[in-house]
Write the C-alpha coordinates for this entry.
Amino acid sequence: MIVPPAPPPAAPGTEGAEFPLDCGPADAVVQDEAEGDLDGDRAPETVAVVHCDAGSGTPPRAVYVLTAGQDPKAPPRVVATLLDPLEQRSIDNFTVHDGVVRATLLGYSSVDIPRCCPDTEENVTWRWSGKAFLRSDPARSAGA
Protein backbone atom coordinates (compact mmCIF):
# COMPACT_ATOMS: atom_id res chain seq x y z
CA MET A 1 0.00 0.00 0.00
CA ILE A 2 1.38 3.39 -1.00
CA VAL A 3 1.03 6.00 1.71
CA PRO A 4 0.66 9.52 0.34
CA PRO A 5 3.04 12.09 1.79
CA ALA A 6 1.72 14.17 4.64
CA PRO A 7 0.47 17.56 3.56
CA PRO A 8 2.74 20.46 4.47
CA PRO A 9 1.81 22.24 7.68
CA ALA A 10 -0.37 25.33 7.41
CA ALA A 11 1.14 28.74 7.92
CA PRO A 12 0.18 30.37 11.21
CA GLY A 13 -2.51 33.00 11.14
CA THR A 14 -2.13 36.35 12.85
CA GLU A 15 -5.01 35.87 15.31
CA GLY A 16 -3.76 36.02 18.89
CA ALA A 17 -0.23 37.11 17.98
CA GLU A 18 1.41 39.55 20.40
CA PHE A 19 3.08 42.13 18.16
CA PRO A 20 5.90 44.16 19.78
CA LEU A 21 4.23 47.42 18.75
CA ASP A 22 3.37 50.09 21.32
CA CYS A 23 0.03 51.52 20.21
CA GLY A 24 -0.96 53.05 23.53
CA PRO A 25 -4.76 52.90 23.80
CA ALA A 26 -5.17 52.06 20.08
CA ASP A 27 -5.25 48.53 18.68
CA ALA A 28 -2.60 46.95 16.46
CA VAL A 29 -4.12 46.27 13.04
CA VAL A 30 -2.84 43.71 10.52
CA GLN A 31 -2.87 45.60 7.23
CA ASP A 32 -1.60 42.78 5.06
CA GLU A 33 -0.17 39.28 5.40
CA ALA A 34 1.46 36.67 3.20
CA GLU A 35 2.86 33.23 3.81
CA GLY A 36 5.80 31.25 2.58
CA ASP A 37 8.65 29.03 3.72
CA LEU A 38 11.25 31.68 4.45
CA ASP A 39 13.92 29.50 6.07
CA GLY A 40 13.74 26.31 4.00
CA ASP A 41 12.43 24.06 6.79
CA ARG A 42 9.26 23.14 4.81
CA ALA A 43 7.07 24.83 7.43
CA PRO A 44 5.62 28.11 6.16
CA GLU A 45 5.89 31.30 8.11
CA THR A 46 3.51 34.25 7.96
CA VAL A 47 4.76 37.77 7.32
CA ALA A 48 2.46 40.50 8.65
CA VAL A 49 2.36 44.23 7.96
CA VAL A 50 1.03 45.84 11.13
CA HIS A 51 0.22 49.38 12.23
CA CYS A 52 -1.55 51.15 15.08
CA ASP A 53 -5.18 52.04 14.45
CA ALA A 54 -4.53 55.77 14.73
CA GLY A 55 -7.78 56.88 13.11
CA SER A 56 -6.13 59.45 10.84
CA GLY A 57 -2.86 60.17 9.09
CA THR A 58 -0.48 57.49 7.94
CA PRO A 59 0.79 55.65 11.01
CA PRO A 60 4.14 53.90 10.49
CA ARG A 61 4.08 50.24 9.62
CA ALA A 62 6.02 47.35 11.07
CA VAL A 63 6.72 44.04 9.35
CA TYR A 64 6.93 40.88 11.47
CA VAL A 65 7.63 37.21 10.77
CA LEU A 66 5.41 34.76 12.67
CA THR A 67 5.83 31.06 13.19
CA ALA A 68 3.57 28.43 14.70
CA GLY A 69 4.39 27.16 18.15
CA GLN A 70 4.93 23.52 19.06
CA ASP A 71 1.46 23.43 20.60
CA PRO A 72 -1.15 23.75 17.82
CA LYS A 73 -3.44 25.58 20.27
CA ALA A 74 -0.81 28.21 21.11
CA PRO A 75 -0.95 31.57 19.35
CA PRO A 76 1.67 32.29 16.67
CA ARG A 77 4.98 33.76 17.82
CA VAL A 78 6.77 36.77 16.37
CA VAL A 79 10.28 35.52 15.58
CA ALA A 80 11.67 38.49 13.63
CA THR A 81 11.07 42.16 12.96
CA LEU A 82 11.83 43.04 9.36
CA LEU A 83 10.74 46.68 9.53
CA ASP A 84 10.70 48.57 12.82
CA PRO A 85 7.95 51.21 13.15
CA LEU A 86 10.62 53.66 14.34
CA GLU A 87 11.77 53.85 10.70
CA GLN A 88 8.54 55.82 10.05
CA ARG A 89 7.72 53.99 6.78
CA SER A 90 4.59 52.87 5.01
CA ILE A 91 4.45 49.73 2.86
CA ASP A 92 3.32 49.17 -0.71
CA ASN A 93 3.70 46.25 -3.16
CA PHE A 94 4.14 43.72 -0.35
CA THR A 95 4.72 40.09 -1.46
CA VAL A 96 6.32 36.83 -0.34
CA HIS A 97 7.56 34.55 -3.11
CA ASP A 98 10.20 31.78 -3.19
CA GLY A 99 11.30 32.55 0.36
CA VAL A 100 11.87 36.25 -0.31
CA VAL A 101 9.86 39.12 1.18
CA ARG A 102 9.55 42.13 -1.14
CA ALA A 103 8.09 45.55 -0.47
CA THR A 104 8.22 49.17 -1.45
CA LEU A 105 8.96 51.37 1.57
CA LEU A 106 7.45 54.82 1.45
CA GLY A 107 8.98 57.52 3.60
CA TYR A 108 9.79 61.18 4.03
CA SER A 109 12.78 63.20 2.82
CA SER A 110 12.54 65.66 5.71
CA VAL A 111 10.53 66.48 8.83
CA ASP A 112 8.81 69.24 6.82
CA ILE A 113 6.94 66.71 4.66
CA PRO A 114 3.35 66.14 5.92
CA ARG A 115 2.97 62.67 7.45
CA CYS A 116 0.05 62.00 5.11
CA CYS A 117 2.13 62.23 1.98
CA PRO A 118 5.32 60.15 1.73
CA ASP A 119 7.75 61.52 -0.86
CA THR A 120 10.45 58.83 -0.97
CA GLU A 121 10.30 55.27 -2.25
CA GLU A 122 12.69 52.34 -1.71
CA ASN A 123 12.26 48.83 -3.12
CA VAL A 124 13.67 46.29 -0.68
CA THR A 125 13.87 42.55 -0.12
CA TRP A 126 14.44 40.46 2.98
CA ARG A 127 15.99 37.01 2.71
CA TRP A 128 16.92 34.46 5.38
CA SER A 129 20.72 34.04 5.56
CA GLY A 130 20.72 30.99 7.83
CA LYS A 131 21.13 33.18 10.92
CA ALA A 132 19.05 36.31 10.33
CA PHE A 133 16.94 38.12 7.78
CA LEU A 134 19.06 40.39 5.61
CA ARG A 135 17.56 43.47 4.03
CA SER A 136 18.78 44.54 0.61
CA ASP A 137 17.92 47.32 -1.78
CA PRO A 138 17.80 45.93 -5.34
CA ALA A 139 18.37 49.38 -6.87
CA ARG A 140 21.64 49.80 -4.93
CA SER A 141 22.71 46.24 -5.81
CA ALA A 142 22.24 47.04 -9.50
CA GLY A 143 24.50 50.08 -9.17
CA ALA A 144 21.72 52.63 -9.52
Observations:
- The CA atoms of residues 89 and 107 lie 5 Å apart.
- The helical segments are 138-141.
